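Look over both lines before class:
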Amino acid sequence: MEHWNNDECYIVISNHQSSLDILGMFEMWPVMKRCTVVAKRPLMFTGAFGFGAWLSGLVFIDRLKTDRARKLMKEATERVIKQKTKLWIFPEGARYNKGSIQSFKKGAFYLAIDAQIPIMPVVFSQYYFLDSETKTFEPGKVVITTLPPISTKGMTRNDLDALSEMARQQMLDVFHEASKDLVMQIKIAV
């Protein structure tokens, strides 16, 4: 957590393996102090969770209504700058627990470049204990790694692809290393 500076605003990006990611986010919340999250709109209608998330300021976007989604994310970024807080985005766009990190969608990087806000990469190690097919899990550990912030100062949209790929590659390297270490500790093969 040595890379966090609560006087800075960030676009936080992390890999997205499961709805269990929220537990890792809760672990980090006391350090981040103030953060809001971008989530898909259907989560807003998941009973008490959806209602509580809405009350706490989550940004719910409808991925099918891209113009509206862009507008909501731009407004959220303006609040992040004004309030010196964080905006957490899962750039993979969908959960993926297959031992890697998918290609990133570009939204988080557009926001960071347009607003000249640093990107804070966060990596959750592989959920080796989770069986996505049967929706069951065994006891296990997750290593959460915060990488150094990536400055977007002076970048333009021409830098978007390179920025996205650089962030993904840094996260992928950490993901594989942290996951390998965990697997070695518990003597199972990934």
